[in-house]
TrEMBL record:
It comes from the Bacteria. Gene3D superfamilies: 1.10.10.350, HUPs. It catalyses: tRNA(Glu) + L-glutamate + ATP = L-glutamyl-tRNA(Glu) + AMP + diphosphate. ATP binds at K249. Monomer. Keywords: Aminoacyl-tRNA synthetase, ATP-binding, Cytoplasm, Ligase, Nucleotide-binding, Protein biosynthesis. Pfam families: Anticodon_2 (PF19269), tRNA-synt_1c (PF00749). A motif ('HIGH' region) lies at residues 15-25. The lineage of its organism: Bacteria, Pseudomonadati, Pseudomonadota, Alphaproteobacteria, Hyphomicrobiales. Its EC number is 6.1.1.17. This is Glutamate--tRNA ligase.
Length: 451
């Protein structure tokens, strides 16, 4: 199943602001945002903040910051805490339709009932005992101080849908308990507000983790009970750690904020989050538009995908190595470095973090303390330097003259020159660095002077 061409879909990412987003959350966020982008649709950020005790404004702001860092700009941002009137109205409609009914069991009573069912070999499904309570019995329970929680009355039938990822799918609603939609204290659980919001916001496609598959049959029945068509669903495979552990907000080192602070490129994070566990090879991309063109929900694996930090490190470097100057000019200036295309093209292949560019700028501009192994050889090489101005052919012409004059070749020729010119035994190709270093600094360093 794919999003129909020309349908201009509306998709959403709906995190709870109870902690920092991690790389697994990024998978859902990027998939939804880029599917909307690729199909000319809308991308909505919905903050599921109905849990007032755990939701924090700092987490909500961090979510917005993380999405902005990834380059994902929502067309609309809504908060569930602003939308209770919609949920209240939906509750009244479901009550009037006989699809929402009050239950008075305590959690201890429900647990004892589940244990009895298990002992008899029965599934731990709610037995709908509350439906048989008379008005007098309900009144008596409320007189004791009990307040009802409210369950949605499922129709015991098979609910089917064509999943973007999994293909034809179904859930036997008879195997599920009637879900609690409203707690005894009046608080809403996830299910009802999510459905109401999808209806109100015109969400056409819900792309989320496969841990929500079992919720889908319930949600489709709620859509139907509220007189609305259900969106198309797609349940992607989940990310795990390299060791196979499930991701969670407690794994702070895998939060997007931590990855950003560690110098990871947002394009590398987005590419790995989307491409790992798919038919596409994990590879660097130059833009989110390029990444969007690689997304095919129907070719995602059904098995969990392992997120390997070492793979992200390697992809981060490869991403930098491919970034064009136009993509980094503003970042170079913001980092206090000259927005110099020749410099970027010279050093990008040696970066593992963008911040490493500052080291190579220091190598170019100095001061550099040269490492001198053979002063006589360096003096002879300095005498053979070609006249300025220099370009990328100057290094080759110079080292050929030095080779002919000294008989040195290979490492014996090139390493002493690199050590003197850069103070390091590794780095970008000197054919690109030499013109940037310039004649004055090159002669000083060949003479063993800090410059």
């Amino acid at each position: 199943m794919t999003i129909p061409p020309g349908s201009r879909p509306t998709l959403r990412f709906a995190p709870s602001p109870t902690g920092r987003l991690h790389i697994g959350n990024a998978r859902s966020a990027v998939l939804n945002a880029l599917l909307a982008r690729a199909n000319g649709g809308r991308f909505i950020l919905r903050l599921d903040d109905t849990d007032r005790e755990r939701s924090r404004e700092e987490h909500a702001q961090a979510i917005r910051d993380d999405l902005a860092w990834l380059g994902l700009k929502p067309d609309l941002v809504v908060r569930q805490s602003d939308r209770f009137a919609l949920y209240d109205a939906a509750v009244e409609r479901l009550k009037a339709a006989g699809r929402l009914y009050p239950c008075y069991e305590t959690e201890d009573e429900l647990e004892r009932r589940r244990k009895r069912q298990a002992a008899r070999g029965l599934p731990p499904v709610y037995d709908r005992a509350a439906l048989s309570l008379s008005a007098e019995e309900r009144a008596a329970l409320e007189a004791q101080g009990r307040r009802p929680h409210w369950r949605f009355l499922l129709e015991h039938r098979t609910v089917s849908w064509d999943d973007h990822v999994r293909g034809p799918s179904h859930i036997d609603a008879a195997s599920q308990s009637d879900p609690v939609l409203v707690r005894a204290d009046g608080a809403y659980l996830y299910t009802l507000p999510s459905v109401v919001d999808d209806i109100d916001l015109g969400v056409t496609d819900v792309v989320r983790g496969e841990d929500h598959v079992t919720n889908t049959g319930v949600q489709i029945q709620i859509f139907e009970a509220l007189g609305a068509p259900a969106p198309r669903f797609g349940h992607h495979n989940l990310l795990t750690t390299a060791s196979g552990e499930g991701l969670s907000k407690r794994l702070g080192h895998l939060s997007l904020g931590a990855l950003r602070e560690d110098g990871m490129e947002p394009l590398a994070v987005a590419a790995l989050a989307v491409l790992v566990g798919s038919a596409q090879a994990v590879r660097p991309v130059e833009s989110l538009d390029e990444l969007a063109s690689l997304i095919d929900l129907g070719r995602l694996s059904r098995a969990p995908a392992r997120f390997d930090e070492a793979e992200l490190e390697a992809l981060n470097a490869r991403t930098l190595h491919h970034l064009p100057f136009a993509a980094v000019a503003e970042r170079l200036a913001a980092a206090g470095l000259p927005a110099d295309e020749a410099f970027w093209l010279a050093v990008r292949g040696n970066l593992s973090r963008f911040a490493d560019a500052a080291q190579w700028r220091r190598v170019v501009d100095g001061p550099v303390t040269p490492s001198v192994e053979d002063a006589g050889f360096l003096a002879e090489a300095a005498a053979l330097l070609p006249p300025a101005p220099w370009d990328e052919t100057s290094w080759g012409a110079w080292t050929e003259r030095v080779r002919q004059a000294t008989g040195r070749k290979g490492k014996a020729l090139f390493m002493p020159l690199r050590l003197a010119l850069t103070g390091l035994d590794h780095g970008p190709e000197l054919k690109a660095l030499l013109p940037l270093i310039g004649e004055a600094r090159a002669r000083a360093r060949l003479a063993g002077r800090t410059a």
